[in-house]
Amino acid sequence: MAISDAAYNVRIGPDGAWTFYEYGTPMSSGTVAPAGTYRLAAEAKGATITTYIDGKAVATYRDPTPETQGRVKLGTDFHRVAFDNLKVEKIDGYTPYASAQLDNMDGSVAYDGAWSRKAAFGDTMDWYRSTSTSTATGASVTVPFKGTGVDVIGGNDGSAVLDVHVDGTLIARDAKTTATDKRLATYALRGLPDGMHRVTFVLKSGKIVLDAFNALSGARGWPRGHDTDPRPSGRDRKPGARRPHAGSWALFANAASAAKAAVDGQKGLDVIGVEQIVQRLGEAYDGLAREDGAGQ
Questions:
Q1: How far is residue 155's CA from residue 130's CA, in Å, rounded to a whole number?
Q2: How far apart are CA 118 and CA 7, in angstroms?
Q3: pLDDT single digits (tens) 217-226
Q4: Which residues of the chain fall below pLDDT 50?
């Protein structure tokens, strides 16, 4: 296994020297006491990855464009090495894995506008070797799913900008996507009420490649000391005397309603869901515009 194969990788040698990598790039390093055996651990909480050696945290890295899914790998150079007691455990307050996956060409997925397709002749790293791609402004895809969120999977360059509608309501305007390798999430939607939903992604600009959609159902239980109130104190204020434009006010009202539901104990809400509700509420407030078209 090459170092660059894994999004996050920790290596340690017999001399106790260790290095934490992100896709083969060293992010931090250090030395512990040499020993015949080591107990290595990596903890991923959203964008924060912490490395432990023998129970002690030695490095914490916050990834501005985190990889939120993947596989666990074990590897070694040309040394005699034994592995034992591998554990993959859930973390309170975080959703550990997807509950269902839809291929981009599943019959329940609906497209509108101009799309190009690869069916069965795509890359082996694409699920079912199929993809749907568009660069057409206004092209859309509608995906039914059950849960509290959905990931848009596909190898993308991060140029796509999306409007996101859930059950016919606009909840995010001009949402940015992330440059990703195949089988990873270029956009993640969280913080929805647990249940059946239909989400529509509308391409505003750029290029989007769709491979699959992963549905998630939020975790139960919160980490101790974590604030479940999504209303950031810095924006705990009202728009004031100005009269907002109807379109921007509707987006803000929807975001405020979602925040209130979270405070009231929304079922299935996890940490990342709260973070996204905070982000959507803040962006909606910042996007409020007066009826005359002026900004704040």
A1: 12
A2: 27
A3: 875 544 545 5
A4: 221-222, 224, 228, 231-242, 291, 295-296
Residues shown for the chain: 296
φ/ψ bin of 154: left (φ > 0), alpha (ψ from -120 to 50), beta (otherwise):
left
Contact 159, 206 (CB under 8 A): yes
Task: Give the pLDDT confidence of 126-176 residue by residue, as tens digits.
Answer: 888 999 999 999 999 999 999 999 999 999 999 999 999 999 999 999 999
pLDDT at res. 163: 97
CA atoms within 13 Å, Cβ hemisphere of 205: 5
Q: Which residues contact 274 (CB under 8 A, 6 or more apart)?
A: 191, 228, 230, 262
* Confidence (pLDDT) at 125: 84
The separation between CA 187 and the C-alpha centre of its own chain, rounded to angstroms, equals 6
Question: What is the predicted pLDDT for the residue at 239?
Answer: 46
- Return the DSSP state at 55: T
Whether pTM > 0.85 for this model: the answer is: no
d(CA 47, CA 60): 10
pLDDT of residue 244: 61
In whole angstroms, give the CA distance from residue 187 to residue 126.
17
Are the beta carbons of 103 and 130 closer than 8 angstroms?
yes
Contact call for residues 99 and 69 (beta carbons, < 8 A): no
The letter for the amino acid at 165 is H
Task: Residue 163: count other Cβ atoms within 10 Å of its Cβ.
Answer: 17
**Residue 125: φ, ψ to 5°:** -85, -5
Instruction: Provide the 8-state DSSP code for 193.
Output: P
Q: Are 229 and 266 in contact (CB under 8 A)?
A: no
In this structure, are strands 208-210 and 179-180 parallel, antiparallel, or unpaired?
unpaired
Residues 152, 218: contact at Cβ < 8 Å?
A: no
Edge-to-edge strands, sheet with 161-166: 110-112, 140-147, 195-205, 161-166, 169-176
